[in-house]
Amino acid sequence: xxxxxxxxxxxxxxxxxxxxxxxxxxxxxxxxxxxxxxxxxxxxxxxxxxxxxxxxxxxxxxxxxxxxxxxxxxxxxxxxxxxxxxxxxxxxxxxxxxxxxxxxxxxxxxxxxxxxxxxxxxxxxxxxxxxxxxxxxxxxxxxxxxxxxxxxxxxxxxxxxxxxxxxxxxxxxxxxxxxxxxxxxxxxxxxxxxxxxxxxxxxxxxxxxxxxxxxxxxxxxxxxxxxxxxxxxxxxxxxxxxxxxxxxxxxxxxxxxxxxxxxxxxxxxxxxxx
Length: 274
Hints:
Blueprint: H1 3-16, H2 22-34, H3 51-65, H4 70-74, E1 76-79, E2 82-85, H5 98-105, E3 111-115, H6 121-129, E4 134-139, H7 142-155, E5 160-163, E6 174-179, H8 194-197, H9 202-205, H10 213-225, E7 226-235, H11 241-250, E8 253-259, E9 265-272
Parallel strand pairs: 3-4, 3-6, 4-5, 6-7
Antiparallel strand pairs: 1-2, 7-9, 8-9
Helix pairs in contact: 1-2, 2-3, 5-6, 10-11
């Protein structure tokens, strides 16, 4: 089978499986099989695919038809300025989370604590953009920490990663605390896309309660782990801005919401006075 036919057939197969953006996803999978960027598919020679390439394409398309996220199939996701390895043990880093990274880089800090680091996408992006800064990432998942360590090494960033349940066992103070915690309420889980609900780690999606448990824990320990005048930046769900601001304000912070490019509440920034 030639490349052009493989592209057409792959897009048709995913469309028939009900995949939104079928042509885009098919191209990402085919490009990963060939070891190229998706944009090159339009300009490269219309060569025949080898048997091994066809088998890998078939496997990838079958996985996507079963609603496995493309990032897990190809093994990576581009986020902010870098490419990160992702697995079923980590959340798929999303473009909306880049709002948090940009907001953090507008603040003065030389040390950062990332609670629930997952793939390490937030922490590694921040440290790569601010050479000389110190960073610590925590997670309750050892498998996720292994992915984060690998991403830091691959991108050339020095960071520490330790297993921890929020602040438990974490010593020292930081200029900045960041987190993209599990904020989906248990009652909302059934309404999620199967791409997310059935494939991404449940503990990174929901607290099994009202979606606010993590923010209460982060706010409760912030003063004991922040340097004087330090900041907290947390990603939130689009309806949680008022509630999360109230939680942080009750802990003594000045808090405000930052919206994403679509105008939705996306991040809460809190400053704790000295």
